[in-house]
Design a protein that fits this description.
Chain A: It comes from Oreochromis niloticus (Nile tilapia). The complex is a heterodimer of chains A (158) and B (1002). Chain A has six helices and three strands. Chain A has 158 residues and is α+β, with helices and mostly antiparallel strands. Chain A has a single domain, classed as GMP Synthetase, Chain A, domain 3. Chain A is globular, with a radius of gyration of 16 Å. Among the domains of chain B are: 128 residues; 128 residues, Leucine-rich Repeat Variant. The longest helix of chain B has 24 residues. Chains A and B meet through helix 2, helix 3 and helix 6 of A and helix 49 of B.
C-alpha cells in the first residue's frame, strides 16, 4: 500500500464504466413507490480500489449481474471478484463493500457479501470472515483498518 | 582661472557635504558651457575622493558619474582613458561606492571615442570584482564586437547562479546574446552548458513570493535561449533525448515542447544524426504514455520534426533525410495497423497522422504506404468493431491530409484512393451496425470537405444512401449523424441536394400511411418518425440561400395542407415543421438574399396561414411566433393588419375586409384576439431604431385589450406587447402630438390602480398582469417611475387574493423572459438591474415582513417574494448579501409553503460551500430546520435538504462534529424513502457524515 512496495497487480485490465442511470418519468412522480433494485445497490458500490486510482466497477471487481437484492424479503447479496486469485486485498475490499452497504441501506436488510465462487485462493476463509458480525465489528474498531476502509469510501476529489 | 576652480569647488562642497542633488545638474551644465573642464572638476573633488569615509567617497564618485552621464560626448580619448583607469580602480573600493562607479562606467561606454581595448579591460575588471546581483543588472548594456571575451565573462558570471530573479535576467541576456549576433566563438558549448544545466526547470515559487516569478516564466525564458540558435543543436538534441528518459512527467513534457520549438529553427543537417534516437524516444512516449498532455506534446514534436525535415533543401549528394525518417516511422508503426487484435492501432495511427499532417510531401509518402493496407484490412475484417476502428483511423488520415494541403491547386493525395474509399464508406453505410454507420457518415463528411476529391456521381450515390438511411433507420443516433452529414454536403453541393434529396423527402412526407383503416399503431408511429426525420433533415440542409428557397416552400406546403386537411398531419408534426422553419430563419438572418426572400414571401404566407387558422379556431399559431428580425416594412404591415384590418398584402386574399383584430369581443370569440401574440412577435422584436407606426393608437388598443379581455393568453400577450413597446419608447416622443412616456405610464397606472383597488372588480388579474409586465419593462431600463409600480406591488403582498400572485410576480421581474424584453429582441436592458432591484428593495421587504400581522396568511408572501428575488441573483452577490438576510431565510424554512422551502434551499446551497461566520453561529437552528425538512411531503424539498446536509459535512470539523450522531440517526430514515432519487441523495449525505471525524475520513 505504501509508496515503496510494489503493487500486486500493477497493470489490471480496465473496464468501461456503465454510465449514469437514466432517470425515468416514474422516478420523478411523487406518488410512485420505487423499489430498491440491483442497479441502485450497484451504484452505491462505486467504491475506490485500495490499490489503484480506479473504482471497483472499472476493475470489474463488482458487476451488476452479481448484485442481488430482494426488497420485499429484505435481503441483499453481493458477490465480488478479486482481480487476481491470490489478491491479498480481497478481505479489505469485501470489508469496504460491507461497510458501505451497512451505511447506505436501511437496517431492515440482511447484507451478505462474498467472493464470486472459484475466483480466489482462500475464498472460504474470506467469506467466513465477512459473514461474521463480531469480526466485522472488531475490524472496524481497529483505527488503521478503518482508515483504509474510509479512504476507499471517500469520494474521489479530482 | 581661480574663479572657475572656486565655482567647481563650491558646487562639489554643496553636493557632497550639503547633500543637494540638484547641484550635479549645475556642475554638468558648467562643464557643458565650458566654465570648467572635467579635469578641474576632478581636482575639486580631490579631497572628497580620498576621504576616509566611504559615504563621502561614494558621494564624490556619484557627482562625477552624474556629470559624465550628461556630457560623455565632449570627452577626449585621453580623458576617457584616465577616467576608465580611475573607475576600474574604484571598483575595488567599499561596496557603497560601487553603484555610482557602475553608473559612471555605463556613461563612459557611451563615448564615441572609446580607446581600443579599454572596453575589454573595463569588462574584465567588472567581472572580476563585482558580486553577482549588481553585476548582472549591469551587463545589459550593449557592447557588440567584444565577442568571445564578453561571452566568456558572462558565462563565468552566471555559473552557479541560483536566485530566480537573476536567472530570469541571465536567460534574457543570453537570448539577446544569441539573437544579437554576438560571436559566440569557441564558447558556444560553454554558454550552452551554463544555461542547459538548468534544464528542465524545477522550481516552485515560495508561497507569498514578492517577486512573482513563476515556473512558467523561467521555462519559457530558458526555452528561448536553448532553441535560439541552430549552433546548439549538437548539444541540445542529445540532452533532450536523455531527459525524455527521465521519470519526471514535467521533464518529459518540457523536453517534448522544447524539441517542437527548436526544430522550427533547424535544418536537416542539424538533426540528421539524432533522428533515430529522437524517434525512439517520441515513439516510446506516445506508446506508453499515461497522460494526454505528454501524448499530444509528443505528437506535436513529431509533426514539427517532420516539417523541419520536409522544409530543408537537399543537396545532390546528401541522402533524403525525410524519407529516411519516415521509413523509421513506417517500419515501426505500419505493422501495428495490421495486427489481428488491433491493440496498438491507435497510438500508431496517431504517430503516422502527426507525421502526415506536417507537409504535403510527408502526407504523400505516408498515405501511399498506409492507405492500401488499411483498405485491404477493412475488406478482410468481418467484425463490426474492428471495421469501425479502421474506419475511424481512415477518417483521421483524411483529416490530417486536409490539414497539410496547401491552397494551390495540388491534386489531392487521396485522389488515387477515391474509388476504394467511396466503396468502403458506402459498404459501411449499408451495414446494419449503427455505430459503423455513424462513423461512415463522418468519414463521408470529411471526404466531401476535401476540395475536388469526390466527383458528382459519388455525391449522388452518397445522397441516395443518406436518403435511404433517413427513411428506414430507426436509431436516433444514426439519423442525427445522417442529418448532420446531409447538412455538410448541402453546404458544399447545394445543387445536387436540391435535385436529389429534397424531392424525395417531400414525396415521403406527403405520402399517407398505407393502411390507415386497420389502425396499425406501430405503422403510424414509424411513419410519424420518418416525417420527423425528414423535417429535421430539411432544416439541416437549408444553409445556402438556393437550398433555402427550395426547402421552405416544402415546409409551407406542409403547414398549408395540414391546415386544409388534404394530407393528414398530426399536431406534433406541425409543431416540428414550425420548429424547422424557426431554425432556418435563425440561420438565414445574416444572409441578405435569403433574408429578403423570407420577408417578401415567407412571412406573409405564414401570417395568412395563421389568420386562416385562427378564423377556423384552429390551434396552430402558438408555435408560429417569429423571433427574428423583421424589417420596418413588415412591421408596419403587421401593425396595419392588426389595427385597421388591412389584409391586402396577404396571399390568397379571401378574408373579410376590415376585421377588427384588436377589438375586445364579447363572450368566447377570443380566437381572433389570441392573434395578438403574433403582433407581439413582430413589433416587439424590432430594433430600437425602427419606429413603429401609429404607436399611440396601438398602445391604447393594447392597453384596452389587456385590461378587458377575459382570455388568459390574449390579455397576457397584450400586456407583454404593451410592455415591450414601453421598454423601447423614447422618453420624449419624437412627434410633438404624441404622449410623453411619463404621461402614458401614469394614465395606465391610474386605470390599473382603480381596478386593483376595487375588490369586486372582475378584471383584477388582468390589471395585475399588465402592471407586472410594465414594471419589468421599466425596471430593465431604469425608468424613475418604476418605484411607483413597485410600491403598488409591495402593497399587493398584503392582498388576500392577489398576494401569492404578487409574490410570484417578483420571480417574473427578476428572470429573463424568452419571448419579449430580452436582448435578442433589442430591448433596453441595463446591466445589473437585478442587483439594483435587490439593493433598493430588500430592506422594504424585510420591513414589510416584520410589520405584517402575525399568524395570518401574509407572512409567507413576503418570504416567497424574498426567496424569488434572492434566487435569481448572481451567485457571487448571493454569497455576500445572504448573511444579512439569514434569519429571514431560516424563518422561511419553517413556514409551511413547499415552494418557499425549495427556493430558499436553492439559495442556501451555494452559500453553504463557503460558509460565512454568521451561518456557523446559527448552525444549530439550521441543522434543526434541515433535518425537519427531510420528511417533507414534496420529494424535491427532501432532495434539496439532503444535499444541503451533505454540504454541511464540509464545514469546519470542530463545528459540525457535535451534530454527527444526531444527523446520522436522522439520515437513517430517508435511506428507506419510497423515492429512489431521495435515497440516492441520502446515501451520499450519510456517507459524507460517516467520514466526518473518522480516521481516514476528514
Amino acid at each position: 500500500m505504501s509508496e515503496g512496495t510494489r503493487l500486486e497487480n500493477a497493470n489490471p485490465v480496465i473496464f468501461q464504466r456503465s454510465g449514469e442511470r437514466v432517470q425515468t418519468a416514474s422516478e420523478e412522480d411523487e406518488d410512485v413507490h420505487d423499489p430498491i433494485d440491483d442497479r441502485e445497490i450497484f451504484d452505491i458500490l462505486s467504491i475506490n480500489d485500495p490499490e489503484h486510482p480506479l473504482s471497483l466497477e472499472e476493475l470489474n471487481v463488482v458487476e451488476q449481474v452479481r448484485v442481488k437484492v430482494n426488497d420485499a424479503e429484505n435481503t441483499v447479496g453481493v458477490e465480488f471478484t478479486p482481480t487476481i486469485p491470490h489478491c491479498s486485498m480481497a478481505t479489505l475490499i469485501g470489508l469496504s463493500i460491507k461497510v458501505k452497504l451497512l451505511r447506505s441501506l436501511p437496517d431492515r436488510f440482511k447484507i451478505d457479501v462474498c467472493i464470486t465462487p472459484g475466483t480466489h485462493a482462500s475464498e472460504e476463509a474470506v467469506n467466513k470472515q465477512l459473514a461474521d458480525k463480531e469480526r466485522v465489528a472488531a475490524a472496524l474498531e481497529n483505527a488503521s483498518l478503518l482508515e483504509v476502509v474510509n479512504q476507499c469510501l471517500s469520494t474521489r476529489s479530482i | 582661472m581661480a574663479a572657475e576652480s572656486t565655482l567647481a569647488l563650491s558646487l562639489v562642497e554643496e553636493f557632497v557635504s550639503g547633500l543637494q542633488d540638484s547641484k550635479a545638474k549645475d556642475a554638468a551644465k558648467g562643464v557643458k558651457d565650458g566654465k570648467f573642464t572635467v579635469l578641474q572638476l576632478v581636482e575639486a573633488l580631490g579631497s572628497s575622493l580620498t576621504s576616509s569615509q566611504p559615504h563621502t567617497r561614494a558621494r564624490g564618485v556619484h557627482l562625477l558619474s552624474e556629470v559624465l552621464q550628461e556630457c560623455y560626448g565632449d570627452l577626449t580619448e585621453r580623458e576617457v582613458e584616465v577616467l576608465i583607469a580611475f573607475y576600474e580602480n574604484r571598483l575595488k573600493d567599499h561596496y557603497v561606492v560601487t553603484p555610482p562607479v557602475l553608473k559612471g562606467l555605463k556613461a563612459l561606454t557611451k563615448c564615441t571615442n572609446l580607446p581600443p581595448g579599454s572596453a575589454v579591460s573595463m569588462l574584465r575588471s567588472v567581472f572580476q570584482d563585482i558580486h553577482v546581483q549588481v553585476r548582472l543588472s549591469y551587463c545589459t548594456f550593449k557592447l557588440k564586437g567584444l565577442g568571445a571575451d564578453f561571452v566568456f565573462g558572462f558565462v563565468q558570471s552566471m555559473d552557479g547562479e541560483r536566485d530566480p530573479r537573476n536567472l530570469l535576467l541571465a536567460f534574457q541576456i543570453a537570448k539577446n546574446l544569441i539573437h544579437g549576433g554576438y560571436d559566440l566563438g569557441k564558447f558556444t558549448e560553454e554558454l550552452f552548458e551554463v544555461t542547459s544545466c538548468y534544464f528542465p526547470i524545477d522550481f516552485s515559487p515560495p508561497p507569498n513570493d514578492p517577486h512573482g516569478i513563476t515556473r512558467e516564466e523561467l521555462v519559457q525564458a530558458l526555452r528561448a535561449v536553448l532553441t535560439g540558435t541552430p549552433k546548439f543543436a549538437e548539444f541540445l538534441l542529445p540532452l533532450l533525448i536523455e531527459k525524455l528518459d527521465s521519470d519526471v512527467q514535467s521533464a518529459k513534457l518540457d523536453s517534448l515542447q522544447t524539441l517542437a520549438a527548436c526544430v522550427s529553427q533547424y535544418e536537416h543537417k542539424h538533426v540528421a544524426e539524432f533522428l533515430q534516437g529522437l524517434w525512439t524516444s517520441v515513439r516510446r512516449e506516445v506508446f506508453q504514455t499515461s497522460s494526454e498532455k505528454i501524448e499530444s506534446a509528443g505528437l506535436a514534436a513529431l509533426t514539427a520534426l517532420t516539417s523541419c525535415l520536409s522544409r530543408s533543401v537537399l543537396s545532390s549528394d546528401s541522402e533524403d533525410s525525410l524519407s529516411t525518417f519516415l521509413d523509421f516511422i513506417l517500419k515501426d508503426c505500419k505493422h501495428h495497423l495490421c495486427e489481428p487484435d488491433l491493440k496498438l492501432v491507435w497510438p500508431s495511427a496517431k504517430l503516422l497522422q502527426a507525421a502526415c499532417s506536417a507537409s504535403t510531401r510527408a502526407s504523400h509518402i505516408i498515405t501511399v504506404a498506409v492507405m492500401p493496407s488499411l483498405l485491404e484490412q477493412y475488406n478482410n475484417r468481418t467484425q463490426c468493431s474492428h471495421r469501425r476502428t479502421l474506419l475511424e483511423v481512415v477518417q483521421r488520415f483524411i483529416h490530417s491530409v486536409k490539414n497539410c494541403q496547401s491552397s494551390d491547386n495540388d491534386e489531392s493525395v487521396l485522389l488515387a484512393f477515391r474509388e476504394a474509399l467511396c466503396s468502403i464508406v458506402f459498404s459501411a453505410l449499408s451495414e446494419s451496425n449503427s455505430s459503423l454507420q455513424i462513423t461512415a457518415t463522418s468519414v463521408l463528411t470529411s471526404l466531401a470537405q476535401q476540395a475536388g476529391l469526390l466527383v458528382e456521381s459519388d455525391i449522388e450515390l452518397a445522397l441516395d444512401h443518406l436518403t435511404r438511411l433517413l427513411l428506414t433507420e430507426e436509431d436516433d443516433r444514426v439519423s442525427l449523424a445522417v442529418v448532420e452529414c446531409a447538412g455538410a454536403l448541402a453546404q458544399l453541393h447545394p445543387a445536387l441536394v436540391i435535385t436529389k434529396l429534397i424531392p424525395k423527402l417531400k414525396k415521403e412526407m406527403f405520402t399517407e400511411p398505407m393502411n390507415q383503416d386497420q389502425e396499425e399503431v406501430s405503422e403510424l408511429h414509424s411513419h410519424h418518425a420518418v416525417r420527423q426525420r425528414c423535417l429535421s433533415a430539411l432544416a439541416a440542409v437549408s444553409i445556402q440561400p438556393s437550398v433555402v428557397q427550395e426547402s421552405t416552400p416544402v415546409l409551407l406546403e406542409v403547414l398549408r395542407s395540414a391546415h386544409t386537411g388534404s394530407v393528414n398531419f398530426s399536431v406534433d408534426e406541425v409543431v416540428l415543421t414550425c420548429r424547422s422553419l424557426q431554425r432556418i430563419a435563425e440561420r438565414v438572418q445574416d444572409s441578405e438574399e435569403a433574408g429578403r426572400c423570407f420577408h417578401d414571401v415567407f412571412i406573409p404566407h405564414l401570417l395568412s396561414l395563421a389568420l386562416q387558422a385562427a378564423l377556423q379556431a384552429y390551434f396552430l399559431m402558438r408555435c408560429v411566433w417569429l423571433p427574428f428580425r423583421l424589417a420596418g416594412q413588415t412591421a408596419s404591415r403587421a401593425v396595419s393588419l392588426f389595427l385597421d384590418g388591412d389584409v391586402s398584402f396577404l396571399p390568397d386574399n379571401s378574408f373579410p375586409s376590415h376585421m377588427q383584430l384588436l377589438k375586445v369581443l364579447s363572450g368566447d370569440s377570443w380566437s381572433l384576439s389570441r392573434l395578438v401574440c403574433l403582433l407581439m412577435g413582430s413589433v416587439c422584436s424590432l430594433p430600437r431604431s425602427v419606429e413603429v407606426p401609429q404607436i399611440d393608437k396601438l398602445l391604447s388598443a393594447l392597453e384596452e385589450m389587456s385590461c378587458a379581455c377575459s382570455h388568459p393568453l390574449s390579455y397576457t400577450s397584450a400586456a407583454k406587447c404593451f410592455a415591450g413597446l414601453v421598454n423601447k419608447k423614447p422618453q420624449v416622443s419624437v412627434s410633438s402630438s404624441g404622449d410623453s412616456l411619463d404621461s402614458l405610464i401614469q394614465r395606465m397606472m391610474k386605470r390599473v390602480c382603480s381596478e386593483l383597488d376595487s375588490p369586486s372588480s372582475s378584471v383584477r388579474t388582468q390589471a395585475f398582469t399588465l402592471m407586472i409586465w410594465v414594471a419589468k419593462a421599466l425596471l430593465l431600463r431604469y425608468h424613475p417611475l418604476f418605484t411607483t409600480l413597485t410600491d403598488k406591488l409591495f402593497s399587493l403582498l398584503d392582498d388576500a387574493d392577489l398576494g401569492p400572485m404578487a409574490a410570484d410576480g417578483f420571480s417574473l421581474l427578476m428572470s429573463d423572459s424568452t419571448d419579449v424584453l430580452n436582448r435578442a429582441c433589442h430591448a433596453d436592458v441595463r446591466i445589473m438591474y437585478r442587483q439594483r432591484f435587490f439593493s433598493e428593495n430588500s430592506a422594504k421587504l424585510v420591513q414589510g415582513f416584520n410589520a405584517a400581522p402575525q399568524g395570518r396568511e401574509k407572512k409567507p408572501n413576503y418570504l416567497k417574494a424574498l426567496s424569488n428575488i434572492v434566487n435569481k441573483l448572481p451567485k457571487q452577490v448571493q454569497v455576500t448579501e445572504l448573511p444579512a438576510l439569514l434569519s429571514l431565510l431560516l424563518e422561511a424554512l419553517s413556514c409551511p409553503d413547499q415552494d418557499i422551502h425549495l427556493s430558499t434551499l436553492s439559495c442556501l446551497e451555494p452559500v453553504l460551500v463557503n460558509p460565512p461566520q454568521v451561518l456557523i453561529q446559527q448552525l444549530e437552528a439550521l441543522i434543526n430546520r434541515l433535518l425537519a425538512l427531510i420528511s417533507s411531503p414534496a420529494m424535491s424539498v427532501r432532495i434539496a435538504s439532503l444535499s444541503c446536509i451533505s454540504t454541511l459535512s464540509h464545514f469546519p470539523v470542530h463545528e459540525v462534529l457535535p451534530f454527527r450522531a444526531r444527523v446520522l440517526r436522522a439520515l437513517a430514515k430517508p435511506l428507506d424513502d419510497k423515492k429512489r432519487l431521495v435515497r440516492r441523495e441520502a446515501v451520499q449525505a450519510r456517507g459524507e457524515w460517516f467520514l466526518l471525524g473518522s480516521p481516514g475520513g476528514r
